[in-house]
Design goal:
Blueprint: E1 7-13, H1 21-28, E2 33-39, E3 57-60, E4 64-67, E5 72-75, H2 78-86, E6 90-93, H3 98-109, E7 113-118, H4 130-141, E8 145-148, H5 151-159, E9 167-169, E10 188-193, H6 202-216, E11 220-225, H7 231-240, E12 245-249, H8 258-263, E13 265-270, H9 279-286, E14 291-293, E15 310-312, H10 317-329, H11 331-344, H12 350-369, H13 371-378, H14 395-398, E16 402-410, H15 416-428, E17 431-438, H16 442-445, E18 458-460, E19 463-466, E20 471-474, H17 477-481, E21 485-489, H18 495-505, E22 511-515, H19 529-535, E23 541-544, H20 547-555, E24 563-565, H21 572-580, H22 584-594, E25 602-606, H23 615-628, E26 633-637, H24 643-652, E27 656-660, H25 664-673, E28 676-678, H26 686-692, E29 697-700, E30 718-721, H27 725-737, H28 739-753, H29 758-775
Parallel strand pairs: 1-2, 1-6, 2-3, 6-7, 7-8, 8-9, 10-11, 10-13, 11-12, 13-14, 14-15, 16-17, 16-21, 17-18, 21-22, 22-23, 23-24, 25-26, 25-28, 26-27, 28-29, 29-30
Antiparallel strand pairs: 4-5, 19-20
Length: 776
C-alpha cells in the first residue's frame, strides 16, 4: 500500500550504477515520491551495490542479458507481471531495449503516465535505422514528460519535435568533493581511465604521450586505469615505446580508490570515438585535471569547454600533442584550467539531478490525470506531443536535424581529417553527417592507405566488386532513403550512382556529386566519358574540386548556381606543423639515420604507385640527375601495383631509398629533410603537402594531371617541363645547383599552401550542403 498522497514511481534501468544510485536515493528522500527501481541485472563491474540498502525498494529481473561494446540487450517479459503487482502511478524507462518496451506497453494498456529518460544524443544515435526511429516516435507520442542526462539529450528530444515545456534535465554526476584531493608531488603526466575497447582509443593515448615526449625532450608517464579486451595488445605496444613513455597499468579501480588515481596524475586523456557523455570527465574536472577530449564525446562543448577547463580536439595526433605539451610546460595555463575544471562541475550534483527527474514525474502525473489542464499548462495539444510550440525557442532548436550521407568506395587516410572537421562543422548547423564506406578491394588494398572512420559518423558496409574491379555496388540503400541529401563520388564504376539518379527522378532522394567532372588522366575507358558527361547533369548540386572542374561542369550544361568550388585539399596545417616542429638538429639526425649527409641534395617522391605516376620515368631521370649532381639522393614513399619499380631501384642504387607507405609524423619527417619534390607523372593532392613542407614541385606537361595541378605556378612554386627524362633531369639539376633560386621557390611554395587548406575546404563544402538543403 503506497503512502497517502505519494506518487508511486517505478524506474526501469540497466544495473545499479555508482553515478545513478545516489541520485535515485535523493529522489526517494523527497516526501511526495515513493520510488521503486527495477534493474535488468546485477552489476558485473561494481557488485557492492547489488545487495546494498540503496534507500529505495529494488527488484532484479532475470531474462537474457547481453553486454555489447557500446550497448546492452535485455529481454524479460516478467517485467509486466512485476509492474502489475506494484501498480505504479508513473513508469520511467531509460531506453528502448525489449524489456523497457514491455514496461512502456504495460503503461499504455494500464493508462499509467510514462516518462521517457535517456542519456543518448543526436551524435550517439546518428546511425539508427528506421525501425529504431519508429520505436522512439511511438514511445515519445505516448510519453507525458521527458528527461535528458545532458543538453545533448534535450537536443535529441527536440529533434523529434518534443515541446520545450516537457523537457527536464537530470545530469550525470559524481560525488565531486571526494575527488578534491591534493595533487601528488610525483604525479604522472597523463591518465587514461576507462574500458580498453577499440572505440575508446586507448592506444591513441600512448601515441600522444610518446609524441609529447618527443616535443618536450624528456620521457613522459601515463597511467592506465581500467581493464578490457585490448589490454594485452596495449601492454605489448607500450613496451615498444618504453624509451619515450613510462606506461603503468593499474587495473580496475573501485569508487573508493578512483579519487587517489586522479590525484596521482596531471592531465586526463579522453580520446573516445563514441560516448554519449563520459562521466570520467566529471571525475577529472572534480580532481582538478584539465581534460583533452575528442569532439565525439558528449561532454565536449558542454562540460569540457575548449581553452577553459581543457581542450576539444579532433583525433589528430599532432593537435593533441601540441595542447598536451603546452599543459605540461606552462604551469600558469595548467593552474587556470585546473581551477576552472573544479568550478565547472559544481552544478553537477545529485540533488539537482534528482530535482530534474522529480519535476518530470510530477508533470507526468498532472498531464496524465488532467489533459485539459495539461493543455493550459504547456500550451500544446496533449494528444499531439510531437508538435513543437511557437514559444520563442531558437529556430535551430525547433527544426529537426537534417541528414547528409556521403558515400565513398574506400575511406582514405588523407580524407580522415576532412571528414572529422566536416562532421563537426555540419553539426553546428544542425546537420548530421554519415559517411558510408567499404573495405578496399585487393588491388586498392595494395596502396595501404585505407582507414576506418570514427563510428560517430562512419558506417562501413559490404561492397560487391565486378568486372575486374571496374564496377562496385555498396549495400546502403536503407541509409540513402533516410538522408535528406546523398553526396557521391562522380564515377562510372559506382553502380549505386546510377540507381540514385533514377531514384532522384522520382523524388526519392536528393543527389549531390563531387569530384573531377571528367577523367583527366585519360587512363580509363574513353567510350564511357560521354555517358559520364551526361550523368553529371543528373544531380541537384555539384561539389567541384577546383575552379577548373567547375568550368567543365558548367560547360557541360549544369547551372552555375548549383555548383560549389570546394578547393580540394588535405590537412596542410597539421602537416606543416609536424614538419616545422622538427628543428635542425632533429632533421640532421633523421638524415643520418637515412644515410644521407647533411649537405646532400635530396629529392622526394610521395604518393600512390600506379602507372599514371611514371615511376620508371622518375628513376631514369634520377640517374641522370645523379650524373649532374654527384651527391644527389632520392627517397620514394608510397605503395601500389608499381611499387616493384621502387623496390628494384632501391636494390640497384644505394643512393635511392624506398620507404613504403608512411603517414603522419613518419611521413612529415621525410618531407622535413628533403629539398625538392619530384613527381613527373600525375599530380594531385600531393602538391599541397609539398607546398606545406616548403618543397617546390617538379613535374612534366603530361596530360594526366588531376585538377589540383592548377595550384602549381610554373617557375614560381615549381616547374613543369617537357615529358622527356633528359629535359626533366636538367631542370631539376639546375634548381638543385642554384640554392638561391631553390630557397626562393621554397618560400613561394609555403605561401601558396596558405591559400589551399582544409578549413577553407570544409567551410566551402558546408556552405554548399546548406545551400542545397535550403534550396529544395
Amino acid at each position: 500500500m503506497k503512502p497517502h498522497n505519494k506518487i508511486k514511481a517505478v524506474l526501469i534501468t540497466n544495473v545499479p550504477a555508482p553515478y545513478r544510485v545516489p541520485m535515485l536515493r535523493a529522489l526517494a528522500e523527497q516526501n511526495e515520491i515513493d520510488l521503486e527501481v527495477i534493474y535488468c541485472a546485477k552489476s558485473s563491474i561494481d557488485s557492492t551495490l547489488d545487495n546494498a540498502d540503496q534507500g529505495f525498494k529494488t527488484h532484479f529481473l532475470h531474462g537474457r542479458y547481453v553486454i555489447m561494446e557500446k550497448r546492452f540487450m535485455h529481454v524479460d517479459l516478467s517485467v509486466i507481471a512485476l509492474l502489475e503487482r506494484i501498480r505504479p502511478d508513473v513508469v520511467i524507462t531509460t531506453g528502448f531495449i525489449p524489456t523497457y518496451l514491455f514496461a512502456f506497453a504495460w503503461s499504455v494498456v494500464r493508462r499509467v503516465a510514462h516518462v521517457a529518460m535517456t542519456d543518448g544524443t543526436a551524435a550517439s544515435e546518428a546511425g539508427l535505422t528506421r525501425i529504431h526511429q519508429l520505436a522512439r516516435k511511438i514511445v515519445f507520442k505516448r510519453s507525458a514528460s521527458f528527461v535528458g542526462a545532458s543538453l545533448g539529450s534535450l537536443r535529441l528530444f527536440r529533434n523529434y519535435g518534443i515541446a520545450e515545456d516537457l523537457l527536464h534535465l537530470s545530469r550525470l554526476c559524481i560525488y565531486n568533493e571526494r575527488f578534491n584531493l591534493p595533487r601528488a608531488p610525483d604525479a604522472v603526466d597523463f591518465i587514461f581511465c576507462g574500458r580498453f575497447l577499440q572505440h575508446k582509443r586507448p592506444r591513441f593515448a600512448i601515441d600522444v604521450a610518446r609524441r609529447v615526449a618527443e616535443t618536450i625532450g624528456r620521457k613522459t608517464s601515463l597511467n592506465f586505469v581500467g581493464q578490457g579486451e585490448q589490454e594485452d595488445e596495449l601492454r605489448a605496444y607500450a613496451d615498444t615505446l618504453r624509451d619515450f613513455v613510462d606506461v603503468q597499468f593499474l587495473g580496475y579501480a573501485s569508487q573508493a580508490d578512483l579519487p587517489q588515481r586522479y590525484a596521482e596524475a596531471r592531465v586526463f586523456l579522453f580520446p573516445s570515438e563514441w560516448d554519449p557523455w563520459g562521466l570520467v570527465a566529471n571525475e577529472a574536472c572534480a580532481a582538478g585535471l584539465p581534460v583533452v577530449v575528442s569532439p565525439h564525446a558528449g561532454v565536449a562543448g558542454e562540460l569540457i569547454l575548449d581553452g577553459v577547463n581543457g581542450y576539444v580536439r579532433p583525433l589528430d595526433l599532432e593537435a593533441w600533442a601540441e595542447v598536451c605539451a603546452r599543459l605540461i610546460l606552462d604551469q600558469t595555463l595548467y593552474n587556470r584550467l585546473s581551477s576552472a575544471g573544479r568550478k565547472s562541475v559544481e552544478g553537477y550534483t545529485f540533488g539537482q539531478a534528482a530535482a530534474g527527474l522529480a519535476d518530470a514525474i510530477r508533470q507526468a502525473v498532472v498531464l496524465h490525470r488532467n489533459p485539459k489542464a495539461a493543455a493550459k499548462l504547456i500550451g500544446t495539444n496533449p494528444d499531439d506531443r510531437l508538435t513543437p510550440r511557437n514559444d520563442g525557442i531558437a529556430a535551430h532548436e525547433k527544426i529537426r536535424e537534417r541528414h547528409v550521407c556521403i558515400i565513398q568506395a574506400v575511406a582514405k587516410q588523407y580524407r580522415l581529417s576532412f571528414f572529422n572537421l566536416l562532421y563537426e562543422r555540419l553539426r553546428q548547423e544542425g546537420v548530421v553527417l554519415t559517411v558510408i564506406y567499404s573495405d578496399p578491394n585487393p588491388r586498392e588494398a595494395e596502396r595501404k592507405d585505407a582507414v576506418n572512420l570514427p563510428v560517430t559518423y562512419g558506417r562501413k558496409v559490404r561492397a560487391y566488386w565486378g568486372l575486374n574491379y571496374h564496377l562496385v555496388y555498396q549495400a546502403c540503400l536503407f541509409e540513402v532513403l533516410r538522408a535528406d541529401l546523398v553526396i557521391v563520388e562522380q564515377a562510372n564504376k559506382h553502380a549505386l550512382n546510377h540507381i540514385l539518379s533514377c531514384m532522384r527522378v522520382f523524388g526519392l532522394t536528393r543527389l549531390g556529386l563531387w569530384g573531377h567532372g571528367r577523367n583527366w588522366q585519360f587512363d580509363g575507358t574513353p567510350w564511357l566519358e560521354p555517358f559520364k558527361r551526361t550523368l553529371l547533369r543528373k544531380a541537384d548540386w555539384w561539389f567541384a574540386y577546383t575552379s577548373k572542374v567547375a568550368r567543365y561542369v558548367e560547360d557541360s550544361g549544369f547551372s552555375s548556381n548549383q555548383i560549389t568550388v570546394v578547393q580540394n585539399s588535405v590537412d596542410t596545417e597539421s602537416f606543416r606543423m609536424a614538419v616545422e616542429a622538427l628543428d635542425m638538429p632533429e632533421r640532421l639526425a633523421i638524415r643520418h639515420r637515412n644515410g644521407v649527409s647533411a649537405t646532400a641534395p635530396l629529392g622526394l617522391y610521395c604518393g600512390s604507385m600506379h602507372a599514371s605516376k611514371f615511376l620508371g620515368f622518375l628513376v631514369e631521370a634520377a640517374i641522370q640527375i645523379r650524373q649532374r649532381v654527384p651527391n644527389f639522393q632520392l627517397v620514394l614513399i608510397g605503395a601500389g601495383p608499381e611499387e616493384t619499380i621502387a623496390c628494384d631501384a632501391a636494390r640497384t642504387h644505394d643512393w635511392i631509398q624506398y620507404k613504403g607507405p608512411l603517414f603522419d609524423a613518419e611521413k612529415a619527417a621525410q618531407f622535413a629533410i628533403a629539398d625538392i619534390f619530384l613527381c613527373p607523372g600525375q599530380v594531385g593532392l600531393a602538391v599541397l603537402e609539398a607546398f606545406a613542407a616548403g618543397l617546390p614541385l617538379f613535374t612534366t606537361n603530361t596530360p594526366v594531371h588531376s585538377p589540383e595541378i592548377d595550384y602549381l605556378t610554373d617557375m614560381v612554386t615549381g616547374t613543369i617541363t617537357e615529358f622527356d627524362p633528359e629535359v626533366y633531369a636538367r631542370a631539376v639539376s639546375d634548381a638543385l645547383c642554384d640554392r638561391a633560386r631553390l630557397v626562393q621557390m621554397s618560400a613561394a611554395a609555403r605561401e601558396a599552401s596558405d591559400r589551399y587548406g582544409l578549413e577553407p575546404m570544409v567551410e566551402n563544402f558546408t556552405q554548399g550542403v546548406l545551400a542545397c538543403l535550403n534550396r529544395y
